[in-house]
Amino acid sequence: MTNGLITEQPPLGKLVSDLASQTGTLFRQEVALAKLEMTEKVRLAGKDIALMSAGGVAAVLGSLVLVAALVLLLGLVMPLWASALIVGVVFTGAGASVAYGAYRSLSHIDPAPRQSIEALKETKAWVSLEMAK
Q1: What's the rounded Cα separation, in Å, for the pair 69 and 84?
Q2: Which segments of 2-132 does DSSP mark as H helices, in order?
Q3: How many of the other CB atoms lie within 10 Å of CB of 11?
Q4: Mean of pLDDT values over 21-50
Q5: 108 DSSP 8-state letter
Q6: pLDDT per residue over 52-96, tens digit each?
Q7: Count of CB atoms within 10 A of residue 54's CB?
Q8: pTM of the full predicted structure?
């Protein structure tokens, strides 16, 4: 018995149309999420790249400004070639240390949009369930 209530199922064409519309909307939202996630990752990577570059520039500029003075100062107690070698190694090491620290920080960023990938998997499962109905 139906208790006097008749429930009508929407036509198949309407169901398919609704599914296509909802799938399109969901896909656009997933793409928007992926763009947002990648924008954030690029922003973080850009910051580390800028720090790495700044460290390299600072190392070069510092070397140029101080190398002559230190070479001459050390030249008072040792040959000039030895003082130039010592000063060059110290500045190169300091610059390399800053650049390597920024590189290590940059290497910890996962470039894949993990949230978007998971959301797309959920969307695929949802579409599969809807198509099976």
Answers
A1: 10
A2: 12-74, 80-107, 114-132
A3: 9
A4: 86
A5: T
A6: 999 999 988 887 887 788 888 999 999 998 988 988 898 899 989
A7: 13
A8: 0.39
Residues 31, 38: Cα–Cα separation, whole Å: 11
Distance of CA 126 to the CA centre of its chain: 29
Q: Are 99 and 60 in contact, with CB atoms under 8 Å apart?
A: no
| Helix orientation angle between 12-74 and 114-132, rounded to the nearest 10 degrees | 170
Residue type present at position 51: L
The answer to whether 105 and 48 are in contact (CB under 8 A) is yes
For residue 5, the model assigns a pLDDT of 58
How far apart (Å, rounded) are the C-alpha atoms in residues 45 and 106?
Answer: 6
The answer to whether 80 and 67 have CB atoms below 8 angstroms apart is no
Three-class SS of residue 111? coil
| pLDDT given at position 1 | 46
